[in-house]
Specification:
It is built from eight helices and five strands, in the order ββαααααβββααα. By secondary structure, the protein is α+β, with helices and mostly antiparallel strands. A hairpin with a 5-residue loop joins β3 (144-150) and β4. The structure holds manganese (II) ion (MN).
Length: 218
């Protein structure tokens, strides 16, 4: 269920399937219109990134788990315990569900309440945290993710992960992730990853991210 990540149920009854009992993973619904994040993320990028890339990870995962020990597992378990192609696709399903639900056309500004306090305590200030987060994203070689994560005591850290990596594998809870795969920015920013990362702060939905920080893992 991943309720502490503020995500909806990951599996839905696939009533169109020949096997009415089969459950399939689905993408998290996009909580805004495809053009709503412009100019930070264009409608075209959303159509490819959410519509094609994210869909492909979901489709691959549903296909790959058939007949394996993960056939009826929840997404978090699969991400923690699988490897190879199943892990790559499950990780990317979780990563993109978190990513696309972190934005709002009315986003931006600063974190609030407990998350704001924790960021100040851990990094000195929100501005210093942004600087370190951007640096981590820019310096990540190749494809991957930069995450803000929390441990069981609520302590924050910035985690660089290659490819489909997610800090959940280290026992940490992901709070916010920036996708630094080229498919996330190339249509809008070409090779300018740093420019893209700086712009993303304008659309962060701090209500959602703050809830992820405050909700306890179950
Ligand atoms: Mn991506």
């Amino acid at each position: 269920m991943l309720m502490y990540l503020n995500l909806h149920t990951q599996r839905n009854d696939n009533i169109n399937s020949k096997n009415s009992k089969s459950m399939k993973f689905e993408k998290v619904p996009l909580p805004y219109a495809p053009d709503a994040l412009e100019p930070v993320i264009s409608k075209t990028t959303i159509e490819f990134h959410y519509g094609k890339h994210h869909q492909a990870y979901v489709d691959n995962l549903n296909r790959l788990i058939v007949g394996t020990e993960f056939e009826n597992a929840d997404l978090e378990t699969i991400v923690k315990e699988s490897d190879g192609a199943i892990f790559n696709n499950a990780g990317q399903v979780l990563n993109h569900d978190l990513y696309f639900t972190s934005f709002s056309p009315n986003g931006g500004g600063k974190p609030k309440d407990k998350l704001a306090q924790a960021i100040d305590e851990q990094f000195g200030s929100f501005e210093k945290f942004q600087e370190l987060f951007n640096e981590a994203g820019v310096s990540l070689f190749g494809s991957g993710w930069v995450w803000l994560a929390k441990d069981g005591d609520g302590k924050l850290s910035i985690e660089k992960e290659s490819n489909a990596g997610n800090p959940i594998r280290k026992g940490l809870t992901p709070i916010l992730g920036f996708d630094v795969w080229e498919h996330a920015y190339y249509l809008d920013y070409q090779n300018r990853r740093a420019d893209h990362l700086k712009e993303l702060w304008k659309i962060i939905n701090w209500d959602v991210v703050g809830q992820r920080y405050e909700l306890k893992a179950v």
